[in-house]
Amino acid sequence: MQWRLRPLALAAALGTAAAACLLTVAASPAAAAPVICDQYGTATVQGGKYIVQNNRWGASTTQCIDVSNAGFTVTQADHNNATNGPPASYPSIYAGCHYGACTVNSGLPARVSALSNPRATFNISTPNSGEWDTAFDIWFDASPNPPGQNYGAEVMIWTNHRGRPQPIGSRIATVNLEGGTWDVWFGNIGWNVISYVRTVPNNAFPNFSLKAFIDDSVSRGKISTAWYMTSVQAGFEPWIGGAGLAVNLFDFNVNGNAAGGGSGGVSVIRGVASNRCVDVAGWGKTDGTPVQLYDCFPNNGNQQWRRVGNTFVSVDSGKCLDVSGGRTANGSVVQLWTCLNNGAQQWVVNSNGSIVNPNSGKCLDAVELGTANGTRLQIWDCGNPLGGNQQWRLG
User: Fold this and answer.
1) In this structure, are 298 and 232 located in the same domain?
2) What mean pLDDT comes out for the span 183-206?
3) Which of 40, 173, 313, 366 is the least buried, fewest Cβ under 10 Å from its Cβ?
4) Could you tell me if 319 and 227 lie in one domain?
5) What's the CATH number where 240 sits?
């Protein structure tokens, strides 16, 4: 969130969580680092497409985050803030501009009246301890490039929460958006804060429409269509504890399908020998669901894959193409699994048509040269020359 230093009198007056506060000028992002413990330390990831920030603005207690190419994990959080006051921090990953620190090619700022269909993918892990919320934070201002705090509006989308903390203001409505039921809260702390709290928490939001929430806020008169959306942030507000909170995957596209890093965009993966597509069996969404060849239906979400860094993310489930158990031996099966951005989920697409898992040095392979519907996928030594069961086309 766009918080840094909150005056003590204001913090005492607010008494509940606000999604933003007065900031000092942000430091320029550093190159990606494995661990950040500095209060306002940042790191760029995916070639500057996103910035990760520690953003411990509301406490003096220690907080450290371990940064990956796809997100971050809170590894230490010694917080013990009163739950009727502000949170300790907002560790997060964002696209757009935050106090002059801007990501590349985000499409932001964008005038609200001109927004097409901004979407994001958000896949997180949460611990069974502490008191916290998990939230998108979407910022709006009358100026396209505010030098500091945004004074238009802030939309917070609480996808999960634990413990006693509540959003700023009071509850004003309940709505059904994006397949869930959300309590709507509103308050003003110098800018409008509109919070959407999911009544049934969820940690996986693939290709999630942000526009649905923006439109609802516009309809309530809380956002002007003449304003600009300046940044989209995703992270956590811990009051007590917070270690173990993790963004496993974040992806944002201002114009539609959340496009990833690497080769970018959404596509099918088509086998050269079979002319069939990489398919999540039975539209499964649980960890360990088999991945197979099947007749191509390019509009089916269980055959659509989004490139995020060097991962392939299922549009339908938000989970990753994964080598079971991180194994490296020939015959290790390929499956669907929660995105962890580890070696088992890294895939390099080569000009010869191979898709190689760098952790093993082996190729994505259709078992026993199979071409029929239901043929399982595995990793295997790359052929020289490659067989058609190890060659793939994207799109």
Assistant:
1) no
2) 95
3) 173
4) no
5) 2.60.120.180
Q: Report the range of poorest mean pLDDT among 31-35, 95-99, 183-187.
A: 31-35
Active site residue 178: no
Task: Kindly state whether residues 28 and 157 are assigned to the same domain.
Answer: yes
- 222 and 183, same domain (yes or no): yes
Give the domain range for residue 388: 266-394
Q: What is the pLDDT of residues 381-391, one digit of tens each?
A: 999 889 999 99
Let me know whether 240 and 349 are in one domain.
no
Q: What's the pLDDT at 380?
A: 96
Kindly name the residue from 131, 154, 178, 368 that is annotated as catalytic.
Answer: 154
Domain boundary among 218, 253, 288: 253
Query: What pLDDT sits at residue 10?
Result: 35
Report yes or no on 186 lying in a domain.
Answer: yes
Number of domains present in the structure of the chain: 2
Among the options 131, 178, 237, 368, which is catalytic?
237
What CATH number is associated with residue 278? 2.80.10.50
Would 2 be classed as within a structural domain? no
For the stretch 154-183, pLDDT in tens is 999 999 999 999 999 999 999 999 989 999
- pTM of model > 0.85: no
Q: How far is CA 99 from CA 33, 125, 145, 147, 348, in A?
A: 21, 28, 9, 6, 35
Q: Do both 163 and 36 map to the same domain?
A: yes
237 as an active site residue: the answer is yes
Do 310 and 226 have their domain in common? no
Residues 6+ apart with CB under 8 A from 196: 155, 156, 157, 158, 175, 177, 182, 183, 184, 185, 213, 216
Stretch among 23-27, 218-222, 255-259, 283-287 having the lowest mean pLDDT: 23-27
